[in-house]
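FW: tagging you since you asked about this chain on Friday. Here's the raw sequence from the shared folder, copied in full. Didn't touch anything.
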Amino acid sequence: MSRLHVALVAPEIHWNTGNAGRTCLAAGADLHLVEPLGFSLAEREVRRAGLDYWQRVAVRRWHDWAVFENALPELGEPFFFSADANLDYWDVEYPSPVTLVFGGESRGLPDAVRERYRERLVRLPIADPQVRSLNLSTCVGIALYEVLRQWRRRGLWEPLPASVERRAENG
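HL: got it, structure written out here
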């Protein structure tokens, strides 16, 4: 079982989910999709956004928030990403295992979830007050790689061997 999990709660846009899945695969994370979904996973746009990697993404679907919330203790310490959080994502020391939880594109996390986990809300700071939010899949990527950066610094994660990294850089 993975030590790194990303949960999308009621995602609405297929290509964001596909992109998040590709990023999860690259980072070694499992992707959890909490219904309702605003699209079908059979849509070719999900596969296109995930390119030819979608079949390799470790995806788990959850019927609803209550079922997923019951499983959270097994998955790792959760952190909930929300624009109205007071804690910046880089001020958190992410444990292993960990679950990064994101809401849907237009609504974010449900109010009840934000209230229940108020002390675990984190945000990605935005300098320009006219910018309401960042793209969901962008947020997933930023958060995942911050976790990996911290884990590497603490000796909890090893990057790919140099020969694999060089091959990827060359082509």
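FW: The first helix runs from residue 14 to 27.
HL: agreed, and The radius of gyration is 16 Å.
FW: great, closing this out.
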